[in-house]
Amino acid sequence: MNPKDFQCQAAGRVVQTGLGYAAFLPAPLPPELKYDSSLTLALSRADAALSELSGLGRVLPNPHLLIAPYVRREAVLSSRIEGTRASLSDILLDEAKADAPRDHAADILEVRNYVSALEHGMAQLRTLPLSLRLVREIHGKLMQDGRGEHATPGEFRRSQNWIGPAGSTPENAPYVPPPPDEMQEALGHWEKFLHEWEKMPDLIQCALVHEQFEAIHPFLDGNGRVGRLLITLFLIERGRLSQPLLYLSGYIEEHRQDYYDLLQRVRTHGDWSSWLRYFLAGVTETARDAVSRAGQLTDLRTEWRERLRGETKALCLLDELFLNPFITVAKAQAALKVSNPTARLAVGQLQKHGIVKETSGRTWRRVYVAKSVLDIIDKPGDR
What we know:
By secondary structure, this protein is mainly α. It contains 15 helices and five strands. Helix 2 runs parallel beside helix 12 (312-323), helix 7 packs antiparallel against helix 8 and helix 11 runs antiparallel to helix 15 (371-378).
């Protein structure tokens, strides 16, 4: 890391380690911010979009039908940023016990861990504040088993890490987070700021919390995924989201280089304004996209319920398709608590009405998919 790149004392200071390389210690939050017209407008737009999404989450007849696939889509996109190759279809097939690709087994496990980490965080927020303790618990869930076991799940790092291209070292990496001893001090300041309420707009505080978490980089691995989970959990804790329907990983993946460059400019130049505008634009675009998808899924469900009027068993399966658009006769049998022939008849009714189509090409253990649902969930973000 080149100390000369870090020109803003208000952003933090460069520290020299005993091993001869430099590292960066971010200054405690909050920084001094200037709310110029462009930042104020970006905040206004993001607040409005987030409020619309949160309001939608309160009035949906069954918000869980949207939450389950949204969580899995976020898990796929957030993990993809870190290099996994599993698709949303892979995850949904695995959960439906419908033969997910075996060559993606490790990737599927990482994505499932992401879902588990988010669900754990959501459950714990009922009794615990968002805190370093909860952050460690989330990391433990995220990194359990598989490729994450080497990364001391649930423990803050005791050795130095760095951010840079493959093969880089602390000496030549673009960014080296605080050494372990200084890291503990930085985490203490971060948690203190995290617990401040009503001292600045929630979305501004959320953006600062995320930026500094990534600057501290307190884990050996999984920092990016934990940092993105914190965005959703923060907004739920503050009452800005009624349901976990906002996820920025798709936006970050699409604008990945801007994301890394702007985080680095905060550290090197104290350019919080550019980072905040990026973050707020992401909230605006992502919230509007989520509202659009929710409307499309709700309309589709209404249309299909009309189409299945009188088909009692098939109608009872309909909501299962919005939780997971892949279905088998065995899954239908378990959901309906009926015999195999009755479940087969119900799936056949869905197929007859054009709601699902057979996708495995087999004569046994067939897999069916409600492609219209999958397309709405998995399509690229609206523009």
